[in-house]
Amino acid sequence: MSDHIAACQFEPAIGDIDANLESIRALGSDLRTDVAFAVFPELCVTGYDLETVPDLAASVPGPITDSLTEIAGSIQSLLAVGLPERDGDNLYNTTVVVSGDGVEAAYRKQYPWGAEAEVFSSGEGPTTVETPVGTVGLCCCYDLNFPEVGLEYAQLGCDVLTVNAAWRTSYLSDWRLLSRARARDGPFYVVASNHIGDQHGRSHAGHSLVAGPDGRIRSEGDTKNGVVSAPVTASDLEQAHEQNPVRATRSSDQD
């Protein structure tokens, strides 16, 4: 493995799906040619506004994922993108993984935060997808606070954990700490994408990042539109598992 993973950040326009898709396309066009998997923020297709997302939620697959599929095909990279999903009477805060061939996976946020629980139903468990950078596990924003989420993905043999978020500026230190901690817990890479700017009175922190399986930040953004990336290598993962053999210890404890 030597492909790159990337975290992309921008300020979505609330309620303007077309404009947000164009922002995703523009950032995708800025990716390095060796980026195999790129992550975009939570609910970035609609903007983070709990009052408007029920009217904008769509089926998966559906028209929004059809547009994302076209974008993924044009840049030849897998994309993980946050959107509101409607499934019957239920709404979910969902991360879809799309390739040029369509939807490869869909993860429903397990732990809605605050008022989200009044809008969204909870997802039922972990979701993984096989990619050129290895086995990737998906989580969303507040899920990052739960070590058991990362541990489940470690037990599933993940090489990378994605996080897409609408993380506030006031909790920036937590964002960096928890991303690093989950990477160390794995051990695996963490690629974490966050909103920037102000939406509906929420100031978002940006600072999208990639943390290595040793828990060190390999690449980090600021508070502007942009992309950060880092390579995923088998040697880094092997070294992390040797120096921090928690997976092997857990396995032996369960035998």
Give keywords.
6-stranded mixed beta sheet; 28% helix; single chain; Nitrilase/N-carbamoyl-D-aminoacid amidohydrolase; 255 residues; alpha/beta; globular; 32% strand
Instruction: Name the overall outline.
Output: globular
Q: What order do the strands of the largest sheet run in, or round the barrel if closed?
A: 5-4-3-2-1-14
What is the string of helix and strand elements? Answer: EHEHHEEEEEHEHEEEEEEHH
Please indicate the percent range of residues in DSSP E strands (runs of 2 or more).
25-35%
The description of the largest β-sheet is: 6 strands, mixed
Over the alpha carbons, how many angstroms does the gyration radius reach?
A: 17 Å
Number of distinct beta strands = 14
Helicity range: 25-40%
* The first-level CATH class name: Alpha Beta
Organism: Natronorubrum bangense JCM 10635
GO molecular function, one term: acyltransferase activity
Keywords: Acyltransferase, Lipoprotein, Transferase
Protein name: Nitrilase/cyanide hydratase and apolipoprotein N-acyltransferase
Task: Please specify the SSE layout and strand pairing.
Layout (H helix, E strand, L loop, with lengths): L3 E6 L7 H13 L5 E5 L13 H4 L6 H13 L2 E10 L2 E10 L2 E7 L19 E4 L2 E7 L6 H9 L4 E6 L6 H14 L3 E6 L1 E4 L2 E4 L3 E3 L5 E4 L5 E6 L2 H10 L2 H9 L1
Parallel strand pairs: 1-2, 2-3, 7-8, 8-9
Antiparallel strand pairs: 1-14, 3-4, 4-5, 6-7, 9-12, 10-11, 12-13
Descriptive overview:
With 255 residues, the protein is an alpha/beta fold. It has one domain: Nitrilase/N-carbamoyl-D-aminoacid amidohydrolase, CATH 3.60.110. It contains seven helices and 14 strands. The strands form three sheets. A six-stranded mixed beta sheet has the order 5-4-3-2-1-14. It has a six-stranded mixed beta sheet with strand order 6-7-8-9-12-13, with helices on one face. A two-stranded antiparallel sheet has the order 10-11. Strand 10 and strand 11 form a beta hairpin. The radius of gyration is 17 Å and the shape is globular. Keywords: Acyltransferase, Lipoprotein, Transferase. GO terms for molecular function: acyltransferase activity. Pfam families: CN_hydrolase.
